[in-house]
Amino acid sequence: MDGTLLGLGGKTLSEAVQDPNAYVSACPTRQALDRIADKWTVLVLGLLEGGPMRFNQLRREIEGISQKMLSQTLKSLERDGLVSRRAFATVPVTVEYSITPLGATLAQTLVPLRVWAETHITRMLEARAAYDRAGDDRMADERTADAA
Amino acid sequence: MDGTLLGLGGKTLSEAVQDPNAYVSACPTRQALDRIADKWTVLVLGLLEGGPMRFNQLRREIEGISQKMLSQTLKSLERDGLVSRRAFATVPVTVEYSITPLGATLAQTLVPLRVWAETHITRMLEARAAYDRAGDDRMADERTADAA
DNA sequence: CAGAATAGGTTTCTAATGGTGACTTGATGC
DNA sequence: GCATCAAGTCACCATTAGAAACCTATTCTG
């Protein structure tokens, strides 16, 4: 083993990390991007930014998230050092999730994303409706062409 | 039909859009978030921000994307009015994708995300390694407990 | 003239992921 | 003695992502 990884253009992992480029598939940055570009991550970190929260509290706030996805999301956020988990030996057991300093820096960059979604949604819905109307025409054209 | 949608707390769609909240599952903002919080979207918009590009040009730049995912991503970006597509009747046909003004505003908010991934990846990898080491111990403990 | 290449896709098949709902554990109130 | 709470897990099915082949039309290469 010479420490060289396939797909990094002959670079070692540490060299690749010194020249990070999300457009290179083997670059670890790609993993990071894949990890954080996720609906539930954005919503969970958005809530934890306001202070620690408990499991079912998060579940109630994030309408539509399943227990499975929440525990999965929290587990991988914890693994990546973005949130921390503390369990209290109460009855029933209480678990508190809070954001780490690292997670807080990510949460900062995620805010504009949520804001963009909330402010530009109407423009997107309009564009979508227009596209779908045009699509109906296209399909009608195709049916006419087929019949001919 | 009174224009009321289920899950919006008795609000009409237009009322929900006036009070957007990504934490409400039926809010269209959630769709927008789900749409834009995507690895390929981040990478494609990041490239188109620098000027129009052609299909295979994008494919070559974004290492690891399949033709299917690229055409799918571009199609839904076009549907949502974030990129525009122009085909030229050359031989073989040439197709040029460019970012729309709306897409440009989104691309702006996506830059910090890519930058975060590129600058914090080492911290994440460290945290992950530490977590996995601890996990090995946990599993060893469980095996010991099982044997007892 | 056969075969390859090029551009921009679509189709097909499989592997991984996401969501649903039932189940767990242990104490506590009814 | 039964239901409830918290914080999950488990088994199952539906959707999706990814890999690889194929398509159409034209031109280039041997």
Provide the low-confidence segments of chain A as ranges: 1-7
Task: Name the helix and strand elements of chain A from N-terminus to C-terminus, one letter apiece.
Answer: HHHEHHEEH
Number of domains of chain A: 1
Strand order, biggest sheet of chain A? 1-3-2
Oligomer: homodimer
Fold-level CATH name of chain A: Arc Repressor Mutant, subunit A
Residue share in helix of chain A: 55-70%
CATH architecture of chain A: Orthogonal Bundle
Mean pLDDT across the residues of chain A is: 84
Report a brief summary of the structure.
With 148 residues, the first copy, chain A, is mainly alpha-helical. Chain A has helices at residues 13-18, 28-36, 39-48, 55-61, 67-79, 101-147, and strands at residues 53-54, 83-88, 94-99.
List keywords for this structure.
homodimer, 148 residues, mainly alpha, Arc Repressor Mutant, subunit A, three-stranded antiparallel β-sheet, 6 helices, 3 strands, disordered N terminus, DNA-binding
